[in-house]
Structures
1.
Amino acid sequence: MRHLSILVSWVFHPLLLCTYLVILLTRFLPHFLLIPTASIWMFIGLVFIMTFVLPVLNLLMFKTFGSLHSLQMHQRRDRIVPFVLISIIYAVVAWMFYYKISTNVNFNKVMLIVAVLVVTATVITFFEKISVHSMAAGGMAGIIIPLNKVVADNSLLWPSVFIIVIAGAVMSARLYLNAHTLRQVMYGGAAGLMIGLTGMLLLFRGH
């Protein structure tokens, strides 16, 4: 069970949230992003590099120079500086998609919500430890669930159910590994869900 919990924690790492969102949307709601078929995997690769590879390189740099004792970042104080730099990366990426990269406005809005999730997690970390895994899972659910109202064929129904199940699995894994308390996991999930839902309702009003 421990090995499964570790696998779930790595496969559904918070930094993979944006990549999974793009893959899911291009598969089940392609008209939402309006990305040419020939460019889909190139776009996914770009998102993966900017939202996963760059932050991971940042963490590895801290680990190499001894500023970070463990990539798990068990202690709250170990998370602050890496989280701040990751927040800067996500804020810059969101800004780039808005102003420098010609892409669909819908993705720009989703990227903005993801950036808000990351920055909020960082701000909370200044005061207490929270489950960022749970926050990312809740945020993904909060982003995807409202989109069900814009599809007539219920194509997002089962993906939404799957995301909810995964969110439960991620929270259970974090608890099983004693990485977080129940309070930290529940707060993380609730915060992510609230930010995702609020962001979608505010940015996609009238859609």
Note: The chain has one domain: 2-203.
2.
Amino acid sequence: MAWDRNQMAKRAATELKDGWYVNLGIGIPTLVANYVGDKDITLQSENGMLGMGPFPIEGDEDPDLINAGKQTITELNRTAYFDSATSFGMIRGGKIACAVLGAMEVNEKGDLANWMIPGKLVKGMGGAMDLVAGVGRVIALMDHTNKHGDSKLLRQCTLPLTGKAVVDRIITNLGVLDVVVGGLKIVECADGVTEDELHAATEAKIV
């Protein structure tokens, strides 16, 4: 047993606090928008949108209304639009309280690799480097292992880094871990997952 992607996103949404401005990365993090509920959370998208709503109902999509991952989204009655320079001014200026980002790898020191695999065609790092440097808290929302069953929570990242010592909390399909002095600390196991199973699936040191 483990959490599916929607359960992971729902768990990540519980981390967000009233009054926060929050950026959601591409991939699983975009699903968090569906689980904000009644909280006073303002979602920011680096392509120039403040006040991002949940995904639209099928048939109600507006092709001109997209997030940074080119997915169709909805607007709210308080949504504001602006250019990329203003968007990144918010991020670099420390105005965004939290970023929930996908990850290919995270190591026990909180280093994050989430933008490229050498040899594969990529469009660029996007806003990830600015986000990990400028926001108050970084949550990595990711699968615990790759498709071969190898851990993605490592002693050392093998892929090019997005940022060093930037991740505060990791939420995976197997549980929740914090980056602390000396390694990772288990906060919570996913439904039906034991601590022993979490240990077995984690290469990084658990303290």
Note: The chain has four helices and twelve strands.
3.
Amino acid sequence: MIPKAVIFDCDGVVVDSEGPTFAMLGQDLALHSLPLSVPQMEQLFLGGTVAGAFTKAREMGASLPDDWVSDFYNRLYARLGEGTPLISGILTVLDALDAAGIPYAIGSNGSARKMEVTLGQHAGLTARFKGHIYSAYSVAAPKPAPDLYLHAARALGVQPADCVVVEDSAAGAQAARSAGMRCMGYAPHGAGEGLRAVGATVFTDMADLPALLGL
């Protein structure tokens, strides 16, 4: 069934920002007595918030300072501002949605400022979303709660059951499921077990998404 609206996660789905983020996070955690590999960090933190990572890391023994969240964000904005590429194939997906007259939005657990930095590097990209770029910091609860995706659906004027969410994390896929939305799980490296476990339809190449959506 062709959706009436599509809601995208941002990091790892629209912009390729997760590599630098996890690199910085790994360095910080190692400096504060919690060395973790990238796969471990992905398992623990992918799809969450920086504040959530702070809380969980402290529970695991990291000696992060009280002001770490704001400090990390400031350093991350500077790093991402040096260059954050788009996910290969995402513009083709947006072109197909525009051609079909299907509206779309972004719903991210990241901050609005982070999306301004990453999306704003690409001329005309922010304008394509026509104001429908939403951060979990503006709703009651972040993913895996459904609040953000339900907010985006209301703003688009589309019923949740008629929306498709595009996600790369199990937390995001769970949010879609709790919101009553279908989820397409983007797993470019083939590790989509966590997405499948919460009901997402997994795909590995963004170029395949228009056909998967019936466009």
Note: The first strand starts at residue 5 and ends at 8.
4.
Amino acid sequence: MLSKEQIAQRIAKELKDGYYVNLGIGIPTLVANYIPEGINVTLQSENGLLGMGPFPIAGEEDADLINAGKQTITTLAGSVFFDSAMSFGMIRAGKVDLTVLGAMEVSENGDIASWKIPGKLVKGMGGAMDLVASAQNIIVAMMHTNKKGESKLLQKCSLPLTGVHCVKRIVTDLAFLEINQNGFKLLERAPGVTVEEIQDKTEGELIIEGEVPEMCF
């Protein structure tokens, strides 16, 4: 199975030169550390920063520089700061080419539940609802199952939705999948993970076409 860092590393391969990218809280923030050489992307944080760099080296953190998840970050030459109104103006105007989000559940038709578990205390929905409504491409970074071993890739989400019919691709600790009109299409599997294991841990419709290759790092 993939580590959180490997999930982020695989997602980083999907970045395209010139993209404006928003990285959600959790595993998605790690993508900033794995941007491929020769690829120029601009990372946007909805708390008011354009031009986010990788995480700082231990001992060189600046408490005044944080992302939306309150993690210390770095900036790059040309980085700019602005208020939340301008940040969400960028998002709602469709200026973000790619959003990478975590999720509690994803359905086979591309619905995402990422902000609330009824009966549990949560910090709030953040900017996820604006992002899923406006981003041109959405990749979800998540574990394939929850702590009980139950699938998080479902026929239908059971938790309150963040967005509908919006998720395009998913990278889990077991697989890289694409959502099409028929369900979850299996594109790649994690090294050492079998197709049968992925089938067993996917509740939603899993589409398998031909030989499924292992991910390369």
Note: The chain has a mean pLDDT of 93.
